[in-house]
Amino acid sequence: MTALSLARHAPASPLARALPYLALAGSVLSVCIGTSFAKQLFPQVGAPATVAYRVGFSALVLLLVFRPWRLRLKRTDMWACVRYGVVLGLMNFSFYMSLRTIPLGLAIAIEFMGPLGVSLYHARRPAHFAVAALAAVGLAILLPIHHGGHALDRGGVAFAACAGVCWGLYIIFGKRTAHLPGPQTVALGMSTAAIIVVPIGLYNAGTAMFTPSLAAIGFVAAVMSSAVPYTLEMIALKRIPANHFGVLMSLEPAVGAIAGGLLLGETLLAQQWLAIALIVAASAGSVLALEKTH
């Protein structure tokens, strides 16, 4: 066996094996901080315009940096990128609309039912159904199925649930573009998303969107909450199996709740923290159960 052959068959270094998981952890942290930053724009321009800032600026940055027009795509690959971008745009729009009326950590927890559902799609063993029950209990605590001063806004919950469906589709459609260069794929997807959400933001906020100070805040929020995390997620998706994707993503509801508390002054009740803990445990448990299956 030649030296070149040995190099090809050499086991990956610990850093190389850890890189996709580090990328996913960086994505979680970046998106939570960036979203907390972006929510501060709501009083000035509203949620739709904030989404337009986030997606529009992210698309511009990604286009300039990765220049996806150099790719030679087949028609099927182009359709895969467009489909990925459509669910990306709808996910962003629905999630930000939910943030108008419910706290960041709780919105993420509800939205997280999407990727959790992807992880549990192949549930067969009792352990799989046990973690699904954990998630159901956590979700039941959060949903506005009871009356009282602590019930979440129904509209906000509905938008977060819609974002969850789109998030699940985002994972599925993202895996179907895994054979394409990751950064360029994200650039094409984000551009498609911008075509959907930017006109809505402009219609809603009008010329206020062109205020330099607000646009500057929107640019920073876009880089932190979209351009950076989605690129990191695409790197992770290419190397982490779909059922393992929840390894670090399971922490996002808790990270979001902490970021909302520190950056936005959002406080949660003990029962809401319990719901987040149950959903995080369900996600981590689903990954462990599926690993034992395979």
Can you tag this structure with a few keywords?
294 residues, mainly alpha, 14 helices, 0% strand
Task: Tell me what you see in this structure.
This protein is mostly helical. The protein has one domain. It has 14 helices and no strands.
SSE blueprint and pairings:
Blueprint: H1 3-9, H2 14-39, H3 42-45, H4 47-66, H5 75-98, H6 104-111, H7 113-119, H8 126-142, H9 154-175, H10 182-205, H11 212-237, H12 246-249, H13 252-264, H14 270-293
Helix pairs in contact: 2-11, 2-13, 4-5, 4-10, 4-11, 5-9, 5-10, 6-9, 6-13, 7-9, 8-14, 10-11, 13-14
Q: Approximately how much beta-strand content do the residues carry?
A: under 5%
Kindly name the structural category: mainly alpha
Proportion of residues in helical segments: over 70%
Shape: globular
* Terminal Cα span: 32 Å
How large is the radius of gyration? 19 Å
* Main beta sheet: none
| Count of spatially separate domains | 1
- The helix/strand order is HHHHHHHHHHHHHH
User: How many helical stretches?
Assistant: 14
- Which residues form runs of ≥5 with pLDDT under 50? none
Mean pLDDT: 83
Number of separate strands: 0
